[in-house]
Amino acid sequence: MSLSSELRQATSDLHQAVEQHPLMQSLVNGACHTARYGDYLQALHLTYRSLEAALSKAAAQGLAWATLSDPRWQRSLALQQDLRHLGRDPDRGEPFLANYLSNGLGPTASPAQAMPTAIATAWARYLGDLAGGQILRQLFSRHHPQWPSAFYAFSPHDTNALANELRPRIDALATDASERAATITAARALFAAHIQLFDRLLAQEPAGT
Ligand code: HEM
Questions:
Q1: How remote is the CA of residue 147 from the centroid of ligand 1, in Å?
Q2: Does the Cβ of 206 fall within 6 Å of ligand 1?
Q3: How many Cα atoms occupy the beta-carbon half-sphere of 78 within 13 Å?
Q4: Which pTM was predicted?
Q5: pLDDT in tens, 169-179
Q6: In this predicted structure, what is the pLDDT of residue 9?
Q7: In this model, does residue 184 exceed pLDDT 90?
Q8: Ligand 1 pocket test, candidate residues 14, 15, 188, most atoms within 8 A of CB
Q9: What is the pLDDT of residue 179?
Q10: From 81, 119, 152, 180, which residue has the greatest number of CB atoms within 10 Å?
Q11: Residue located nearest, by CA, to atom 42 of ligand 1
């Protein structure tokens, strides 16, 4: 089985849990307050910034997993655009998930330690944006036509074509059994960290800045 298929199968219970989380449900059914949506986007921006900085560094070091870095699916700039539109500061926000990633990918992690986290995160975030993210985009345009949507827009590129290009890049990595197992462990931990982030966002008053 390909790595991307295995990742999907090994995290299907956790995908269901994130999908059913009250924060995601409030986004799906139009009940999420704009200020809380801003908090969510700020947290995502810090997360992508952490991921995309690590991918750029991997490219500079000539590491194999740098193939996951591609301006066509990078999301930091699109998130900055949406946040400015909402009057929010892209440099602020709930840092939980970004810190979690920095620990896995940051300067103290060796390339061998960083690789499983990088693959798992690029898989979960980018392929998630290209799949479920597109459903959220349609729902938002109905519930909140005033919300900016650069984060969900990959134009002029076709989302299915991008996903079909990213999957084989993932499948070419983590080729030995221990790397593969570590990548699956990292993907499950990443979904669990999303649930913790969503809990934190719901537990705090929306920041509005
Ligand atoms: C309300 C929230 C969400 C909805 C409605 C949703 C929905 C979906 C749907 C419909 C698919 C495609 C399934 C298929 O092709 O059979 C999918 C795939 C996926 N989603 Fe989500 N999702 C949500 C949240 C998330 C989140 C928060 C993440 C990441 C942490 C995520 C990661 C993924 C991944 C990695 C895939 C697999 C894509 C692939 O294999 O190409 N999803 N999601």
A1: 21
A2: no
A3: 17
A4: 0.95
A5: 999 998 899 99
A6: 98
A7: yes
A8: 15
A9: 94
A10: 119
A11: 128
What b/e string do you get for 115-152 counting C-beta neighbours within 10 Å, with b at 16 or more? bbbbbbbbbbbbbebbeebeebbeebeeeeeebbbbbb
CATH topology of domain 3-203: Heme Oxygenase; Chain A (1.20.910)
Q: Within 13 A of 134's CA, how many CA atoms are on the CB side?
A: 11
Please indicate whether residue 165, judged by its CB atom, sits closer than 6 Å to ligand 1. Answer: no
* C-alpha triplet 47, 49, 51: angle, nearest 5°: 70
- Supply 90's token pair: 């892209």
Q: How many angstroms is it from 17 CA to the middle of ligand 1? A: 11
52 pLDDT higher than 90? yes
Evaluate: CB of 132 within 6 angstroms of ligand 1.
yes
Q: How far is the CA of 160 from the centre of ligand 1 (A)?
A: 13
